[in-house]
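> example.struct
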């Protein structure tokens, strides 16, 4: 009979490797500079207001008109009337009437 040979392993059996992945984060800061500016523009607006002050006043003008509504008459001579030399018995005559044109 033939003898069976038992096969005995000759060393360890190595299986395919199992890979474990561990992530290790190394942060790096990269500065990105975005410059900006603010400009303040001051605008001065002048409003020109035109005023027209007006003064009103009242005045009174007065005028006078003189009307002659006759002329004074000489009083009647009384008995003690003395006649100037050269007039005789004449009575003084009233002044002639003239039109009045005002002042």
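> example.seq
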């Amino acid at each position: 009979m033939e003898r069976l040979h038992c096969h005995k392993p000759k060393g360890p059996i190595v299986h395919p490797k199992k890979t474990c992945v561990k992530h290790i984060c190394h942060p790096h800061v990269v500065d990105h500079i975005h410059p900006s500016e603010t400009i303040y523009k001051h605008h001065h607006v002048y409003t020109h207001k035109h005023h027209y002050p007006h003064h009103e006043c009242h005045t009174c003008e007065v005028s006078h008109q003189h009307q002659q509504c006759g002329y004074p008459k000489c009083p009647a001579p009384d008995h003690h009337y003395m006649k100037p030399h050269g007039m005789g018995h004449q009575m003084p005559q009233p002044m002639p009437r003239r039109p009045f044109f005002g002042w």
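> remarks
DSSP finds no helices and no strands in the chain.
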